[in-house]
Each structure stands twice: as C-alpha cells, then as structure tokens.
Amino acid sequence: MELVEAIILSVLAASTPLLIAATGELVTERSGVLNLGVEGMMIVGAACGFGGAWLTGSILIGALFGIVAGTLMSLVFALMALGLAVNQVATGLALTILGIGLSGLIGAGFVGERITPAAHLHIPGLTDVPLIGRVLFGEDAFVYFSIALIIGVWWFLYRTRAGLILRACGDNHISAHALGYPVLRIRTLAVMFGGACAGLAGAYLPLAYTPFFIPGMTAGRGWIALALVVFASWRPGRLVVGAYLFGAVTILQLHAQGWGVGIPSQFMSALPYLATVIVLVLLSRARTGGSTAPAALGTVFVPDR
Questions:
Q1: CA-derived radius of gyration, the chain
Q2: Does 304 reside within a domain?
Q3: How many Å apart are CA 184 and CA 111, to the nearest integer?
Q4: HSE on the CB side for 249, CA within 13 Å?
Q5: Which of 68, 156, 205, 261 can bridge 256 by disulfide, Cβ–Cβ 3.0-4.6 Å?
C-alpha cells in the first residue's frame, strides 16, 4: 500500500506542470494561435520563479515571478506573431531558443542554491487515511490549483459568452471580425494566459518538484504539453486524462529502473517522449470526420483597414 501511494503521489507531482502548461496552451490554440514557445516560457518561468523564491524566501512570490516571466515572454510572441503577422511556427521556435538562452543567463547565479519546497496540506484525521489520505488531502497548492484551473477553463470555454467568442475567433476569425469582435485583442489575451500558465508550470519545478534550479530542468515538458493539447482534441476533460497518463509513463519508467528491469536506461528515459509520438500517431489514424482542431489555428490574421 505504501508503494502504491508513493507511485500515485509521484504521478501527481510529475503531471502537474504538464497539466498547467497544456491548459494554457489549449486556451491559446482555441483562439486560433499556435505558440510553439511553451518550452522556452517554462524554462524562463523556472529560472525567475526560483530566483524570486530564493531572494524573498516566499514560494508565493516565486510563483508570481514565474507567472510574470511567462507572460512577458508571451508578449514577445504576441508582438511578432500578432502585431507584425510573422509566421507563428517560426516565432514559437525562436521563442523557445530565446527562452533557453535567457534562462541560463538569469539562473546562472542560482545554480547550486536550494530553497524550502512548497508546503503540503495536512488535515489531521484525513491526511493520515491510508492510500487516499495523502493523495486527496496532502498535496501542495500547485496540484489543487491545476485541478481548479482546468475546471475554470472548461467553464469559461463552454459556459460563458466570452468563451464562445474566443472559440469563434479560433474557428473563423474573418466572421468574428465581421461581427465586430476585436480578434487580435482576444488572441493577445489568450496568448498572455498561455504564457502565464507556462511560466507557472515552469516555476513549479524548482518550487515544489525539486527545490533547486539547474539549466534545462524542464527537459522537454513544454513539447509534451503541446502534444497533450492535440492528444486531448482541444478538449479540457481529455487534457486531464492525457496529463496524468504521460505523468504516469514518466514515473513508471523511473520505478522500472529501480526495480532492476533489464532494459537500457537510455530507452527508459526516452519512453515518455516515445509514448507521446505513438499516441499522436494512433490518434491521427483513428480520428474520423476530419480534424477537430480550430479551423483558423496558426493562420495569420490582418484586419481590414
């Protein structure tokens, strides 16, 4: 029972940054913008988040630093892709490269430093319940926030007029513009939301997952978050399943190495990314009725003047 509980807790911890980053990217892509710079925004959020927490001693301030850093990075993308109508794919890739270099510069002075990680909830009598106690009532605030975030995004997209307008911009920006909706403003706000989520997801890594910062600590999680959006068919409910599925693959390969499974460690380390490719291929082959992606995803929009 203790081993099962430890595995579940590890899966939740590994899945949380994927869920937060993918939720932000889902909103961005629902508005019709394809931002491939999630990895870059995450790593900058990790560097700034750790720096803020180390300088102030506050996990909350560190998380806010990560959010602000991710948002500022997303504004660079919005300026280029939306303001100047530059190709979104090229801009997103450039943002990732910029983020990796910038994070190394920001975090150079923090390498080797440690902080006290985010505290976990403890409710006497409930947290101590075998198996489910720590899972439901013993997590850190980031885990609970990720669940609240995906519920809030689902409610926003499917239960509010603003969510309907945002989805309209992603499906047909010309019609949305003809109806008088500010497409570029809506997309900019969606990109900023995605950047804030990516920055927070990156900050989670040094603030709660591992209490230190090292260059490149996101280790491709931004790319997995991008794949999760496709895996979920741009639907929040499926995003939760996908995030915990890939989090489980990441953790189980670590436990398999600890159990002495006779498989090369390099293959086990590549397993989460291999699973990402396999799932996307199978999903693409099984999908019927055409693509479920927003119709205007990645399409440059220049309003008539």
A1: 19
A2: no
A3: 39
A4: 21
A5: 261
- CB 225, CB 38: distance < 8 Å: yes
DSSP for 200-266?
HHHHHIIIIISSB--TTTTTTHHHHHHHHHHHTTT-HHHHHHHHHHHHHHHHHHHHHHHTT-SS-HH
Q: How far does CA 11 lie from the centroid of its chain?
A: 15
User: Is the dihedral angle over the CA atoms 128, 129, 130, 136 positive or is it negative?
Assistant: negative
DSSP-derived secondary structure for 73-94: HHHHHHIIIIIS---HHHHHHH
Q: Are 135 and 146 in contact (CB under 8 A)?
A: no
Q: Per the domain annotation, does 275 fall within a domain? A: yes
pLDDT digits (tens, 9 = 90+) for 166-210: 999 999 999 999 999 999 999 999 999 999 999 999 999 999 999
Q: Residue 275 sits in a domain of what CATH number?
A: 1.10.3470.10
Confidence of residue 291 (pLDDT cuts 50, 70, 90): low
Torsion, Cα of 253, 258, 263, 267 (10° steps): 40
**Which residue bears the tokens 């430093």?**
113
Is pTM beyond 0.90? Reply is: yes
pLDDT at 1 over 90: no
**Residue 23 CB neighbour total at 10 angstroms:** 29
What is the chain's percent helix, strand, coil content, to nearest 5?
A: 70, 0, 25
Instruction: Report d(CA 147, CA 16) in Å as an integer.
Output: 9
The domain of 189 spans 2-286
Is residue 300 assigned to a domain?
no
Count of structural domains, the chain: 1
> Can you tell me the distance from the alpha carbon of 24 to that of 128, in angstroms, rounded to the nearest whole number?
34
68 part of a folded domain: yes
DSSP 108: G
